[in-house]
Every structure is written in structure tokens, then in C-alpha cells.
Amino acid sequence: MEHPLSLFHYCPKCGSPRFEIHNFKSKQCADCGFTYYFNSSASTVALITNERDELLVCRRAKDPAKGTLDLPGGFIDLFETGEEGVAREVREETGLEVLKAEYLFSLPNLYLYSGFQVHTLDLFFRCTVAGTTHFHAMDDVADAFFLPFADIRPEDFGLGSIRKGLQRWLATIS
Q1: What are the backbone dihedrals phi and psi of residue 162, each rounded to the nearest 5 degrees, phi first?
Q2: How far is CA 108 from the centre of its chain?
Q3: CATH (domain of 66)
Q4: Looking at residue 174, what is its pLDDT?
Q5: Phi, psi (5° rounding) for residue 4?
Q6: Which of 15, 82, 133, 157 is deepest in the core (most CB within 10 A)?
Q7: pTM above 0.85, yes or no
Q8: What is the rounded CA–CA span in Å between residue 107 and residue 119?
Q9: What is the rounded CA–CA span in Å between residue 85 and residue 93?
């Protein structure tokens, strides 16, 4: 797989074409000295359960992994905390209001967006919402529904970190 920095040819500060490899995770401009570090983008994942031992899952409406199962979540915006980001994503994708977001763990992921491999760090949160009966699929979600814990098959989920995260989470509830 090609390193993401190979796609950056010009210094983002001065525009120089002398934007050269500095080390594995950065490039440095030979003209102005600017060093650009390629870091993971922060993303959120919501684990929302109901009183019937079911997990809220979504069906992806867009690539990557269009049509596969997913969990509510997405990229954290500038100046947002992880808790604010997961609450916004849940609201945008399901209409549910997050009352509490409890951080559980994080996992790295690769997310293909517009032909570009985005390295993400997915932050998993256990979310408490204001009721689990009135929700609907919105934004980049084709469908949203509760799935009994016993019926969750991580291999049905399209993104690697979601599969791994579900395996990890399921091991804590059994």
C-alpha cells in the first residue's frame, strides 16, 4: 500500500515543490522549513443499547462498505470533544439525543474516502440516549434498527475497526 504522504507533492505553507520525506510520518519543505506530520483523524463510534438487550445498528448508505452494517458515528469536527462529536453524529444519523457518552476504548482504522485512505482513530463510546423508540435513518445511514445481542455477527459489519470493536464489546457483556 502506498504511503499517504506520497500524495502530497507541494508544501502547504509556501507551495514549494521541494516538499521532501522527513521521516516515516512527516514531510519537510526544503525552502521554508515547514514540517507536516500525517496523523490519524479522530472519529467516533456509538454503542447504544435498549432495555431488551439490543444494540442500535445502522446500514451504510454510502461507500466505503455501502450496504453493510455499521454503528452510529463519524468524524469529529474541529474544536469538538469526542463526547460532543459522538452526540452530534448520533443526532445527525438517527435523530436521537445523547444524554451521556462514556468513553470505552479506541481502535485504529483505515477509511477510504474519495479514493484516499484516511487513517482514523475510532473512539468507542457507550451512549445513553433520551428514549430508544423514536429514531430514524438520516444523513449517510440507509436504515437504523435494534439488533438483539445474540444476533450480532461482527463479520456483517463493513469496517474493520467496527468488527474488532464489536468483538471486544461483546466479550465484556457475555
Answers
A1: -65, -45
A2: 9
A3: 3.90.79.10
A4: 74
A5: -55, -30
A6: 157
A7: yes
A8: 11
A9: 12
Structure confidence at residue 128 (pLDDT): 97
Which among 56, 52, 44 has a CA at the least distance from the CA of 129?
56
Contacts of 130 (CB under 8 A, 6+ apart): 96, 97, 99
Give me the number of domains the chain comprises.
Answer: 2
pLDDT tens-digit map of 80-126: 999 999 999 999 999 999 999 999 999 999 988 888 888 999 999 99
Q: Is the pLDDT of residue 1 over 70?
A: no
Residue 137 banded pLDDT, cuts 50, 70, 90: very high
- Average pLDDT of the chain to the nearest whole number: 95
End-to-end CA distance of the chain: 37
The kind and range of the H/E element at 86 are: helix 82-94
Say whether both 52 and 133 belong to one domain.
yes
What b/e sequence results for 33-50 when a residue is b if at least 16 CB atoms lie within 10 Å of its CB, and e otherwise?
A: eeebeeeeebbbbbbbbe
Domain range enclosing 21: 4-37
